[in-house]
Amino acid sequence: MSSPATIRTVAIVGTTGNLGKLVTKAMLDTNRLSVTLISRSGSESTLPTDPSVKIKQGDYSSPAFLADAFAGIEAVVLCLHHTSVPDLEIKLIEGAAAAGVKWILPTEFGHDSGNEELTRVGILNAKKAGPRKKIEELAENYPKLRWIGIINNPWSDFAMKRNMFLIDAKNKTANLLSGGTAKFNTTMMSTTALAIARLLSLPVLANGGPALSDYGNKFVYISSFRVSQRDILDSVQGQLILTGLTHTDVQDFIDDGPAKLARGDMTAVLNLLMGSLMKGGLGGDYESKKGTRNAVLGLPKENLDETVKALLQ
């Protein structure tokens, strides 16, 4: 019996970004996917030089360029900066759909967009609904078109390096929100990339096991760690001693967000994103209610203490 059909051709938009670089590597590491990288003409970013990679550069506003770039592509991964969501993302989606692309992974890669209450608080999630809706609308004319949203919460390594968990190892300070005991999920960026490659390597149709078609127009939840702010702090203090510890009510921290925005202070993003993540019961802990697809995708089991130690070196 022949093997179940799988996707063979994948395009990545945003390959030079933090996630895009890792997604490109993970795709190439499968040794079975044909990878096309799509970039703006004139971009000063350095593109991969792997000879097996196809590179298409042009004008994203040109339907002719998008038709050529997406020709023969079965799945597209959009690793865009949040400022490109939703407007540019929708243009790319329209071009991909017209070219016959069947699977689109829009720029999710964050908080749970399937949680309406969390979306009302989070500043970025509301923008992500438009691209998903556009894909569903386009499917009326392109009936095989589907989206899959990867939900990973803030990336563990990205957030720690930028003190987004409110733990500043360099200055040896921390600010615990409501005691820092609420659990939430967080995922390493490399694990997110691996999950994308493993997902797109699944058989398209079910054949007695998991299949890509199981996740059409659905969210796929992954996680490296289910932890609390206090858990991260304890791991950090296993490597160094913090000298300054403060406490803030988590709702007060969230409520400061809109006031900051009104003043043009974009650190409000931290209040809204991380405050909503760390408020117990709001949805940062999606694993306890929705589970994850870690096992289906064969994702590695990761150790928080080892990860924190490596990030602090």
UniProtKB/TrEMBL annotation:
UniProt key word Cytoplasm: no
Pfam families for the chain: NAD_binding_10
Coiled coil: none
Domain NAD(P)-binding positions: 14-106
Keywords, ordered alphabetically: NADP, Oxidoreductase
Gene Ontology molecular function: oxidoreductase activity
Highest rank taxon of the organism: Eukaryota
InterPro entries linked: NAD(P)-bd_dom (IPR016040), NAD(P)-bd_dom_sf (IPR036291), NmrA/Isoflavone_reductase-like (IPR051609)
Similarity comment: Belongs to the NmrA-type oxidoreductase family. Isoflavone reductase subfamily.
PANTHER family documented for this protein: NMRA-LIKE DOMAIN-CONTAINING PROTEIN-RELATED, NMRA-LIKE FAMILY PROTEIN
Protein name: NAD(P)-binding domain-containing protein
Organism: Cadophora malorum
